[in-house]
Design a protein that fits this description.
With about 375 residues, this protein is an alpha/beta fold. The protein has two domains: about 220 residues, Aspartate Aminotransferase, domain 2 (3-Layer(aba) Sandwich), CATH 3.40.640.10; about 120 residues, Aspartate Aminotransferase, domain 1 (Alpha-Beta Complex), CATH 3.90.1150. About 35% of the residues lie in helices and about 15% in strands. Helix 4 links the parallel strand 2 and strand 3. It is globular, with a radius of gyration of 21 Å. It binds ligand T4K. The site of ligand T4K has 23 residues, from helix 3 and helix 4.
Length: about 375
């Protein structure tokens, strides 16, 4: 391959469109602190996600940390999550003084195994942080049932799931709150950015306090908050990207369909099945090499040599991280399905403008 093919490539508007969007910032010199672009993007996202409240953040991680903090959960409380995710998920729990309890995943969509979840609940459990990994949605109905039965809060790590719908409704509606990441590598990006979506009206002030030093007026500081505000330039990028999002998702869908056409029916190559009642955002294309003529690592190396950069998302599992070794539920042997998949999964290059010729070349390389 002449040029390297990266695992993803940020969606961007035409340069002129972005320049037009940020022109007024040169007139106003108002660059951050919840200005006009911030307000506009927030309002557009509330409409797009069908949510009464969306609070924008500087990145998805701080959005998740704040969403968990907003519940003021007792320090040392246990929070059930999965290890098959980015480092951010467990870190957000621990940085809130809470203890992550790692639940295994199911082997269909790689989300939390709701058959095991209930058995991990103790009298110290305070919340569940399930992950809609790759944009595959968790068993939200069962999680809702379990959470209600035990009085637990549910904060979804929906970093990968922007624009996904379940039974025709935005996935942002599930649980007590959802966090989306708008990082450059995501289906919808604001360069860096993220958001918390929620329905509780009293959280509007609380989350604003958390992300803006608790400042409520020039002479009033009412909360010990940090700084996690989205700037005007980032919000402007979001406004532009949102205009093109539905088209971008359609293009991603075509790429995924082409991969599936090329790789279906091959012994030892598996994909996540299409989820029922779900409108996907085609965020990632994970392929499991299980019993294939080459191991995942061999395929990874071989593609790498040809300039095709795939990723082993999510290997290693978070419950194997050095920083979690001392936690009671750490250790990959406690989550065998997650470990099995982490050793075999490879996410193939996927972005809206990936050409079908390149997809065909990638598949030929894998098959031959
Ligand atoms: N929860 C979950 C489940 C998450 O996956 C994440 C983030 C979070 C929480 C936290 O959200 P944020 O705080 O990040 O908003 C990337 C992303 O940095 C990270 O956002 C993402 N998950 C994670 C899954 O992937 P890396 O270290 O793999 O990214 P990197 O820099 O290797 O980039 C991957 C490829 O993307 C590059 O090969 C090329 C392309 N790329 C990258 C950048 C930075 C672009 O096209 N443009 C770019 O600007 O972590």
């Amino acid at each position: 391959m002449e040029n390297k093919v990266l695992v993803t490539r940020s969606s961007m508007p035409e340069m002129e469109e972005y320049f037009e969007e940020i022109k007024e910032l040169w007139d106003s010199h108002w660059l951050t602190n919840m200005g006009v672009k911030h307000k506009e993007l927030q309002s557009e996202l509330e409409t797009y996600l069908e949510m009464p409240h969306v609070t924008l953040y500087t990145n998805g991680h701080l959005a998740l940390e704040n969403a968990i903090a907003a519940f003021n959960l007792p320090k040392g409380g246990e929070v059930i999550t999965t290890p098959f995710t980015f480092a951010s998920t467990a870190h957000a729990i621990v940085r809130n003084g809470l203890v992550p309890v790692f639940c295994d995943i199911n082997d269909k969509d790689f989300t939390i195994d709701t058959c095991i979840l209930e058995s991990l609940i103790t009298d110290r459990t305070v919340a569940i942080v399930p992950v809609h990994v790759y944009g595959n949605i968790c068993n939200v109905d069962e999680i809702d049932r379990i959470a209600k039965k035990y009085g637990l809060k549910v904060i979804y790590d929906a970093a990968h799931a922007f624009a996904v719908k379940y039974k025709g409704v935005s996935i942002a509606n599930c649980g007590d709150a959802s966090m989306f990441s708008f990082h450059a590598t995501k289906v919808f990006n604001t360069v860096e950015g993220g958001a918390v979506c929620f329905k509780n009206d009293s959280w509007v002030q609380l989350l604003n306090d958390m992300k803006n030093f608790g400042i409520r007026g020039q002479e009033e500081v009412s909360y010990v908050g940090g700084n996690a505000k989205m700037s005007e330039f980032h919000a402007a990028m979001g406004i532009c990207n949102l205009r093109h999002l539905d088209k971008e998702i359609q293009k991603r869908k075509s790429v995924v369909e082409r991969y599936k056409q090329n790789l279906s029916g091959i012994e030892g190559i598996k994909f996540c099945p299409v989820q029922e009642n779900v409108e996907s955002n085609y965020a990632y294309f994970p392929v499991v090499f299980d019993g294939y003529k080459y191991t995942r690592n061999e395929v990874f190396e071989m593609l790498n040599e040809q300039g095709i950069m795939t990723r082993k998302y999510f290997y290693p599992l978070t419950n194997s991280f050095e920083c979690y070794r001392t936690y009671p539920t750490a250790g990959v042997e406690k989550t065998p399905v997650a470990q099995h998949l982490a050793l075999r999964v490879l996410t193939l290059p996927l972005y809206a403008d990936l050409s079908m010729d390149v997809v065909d070349t990638i598949c030929e390389s894998i098959l031959n």
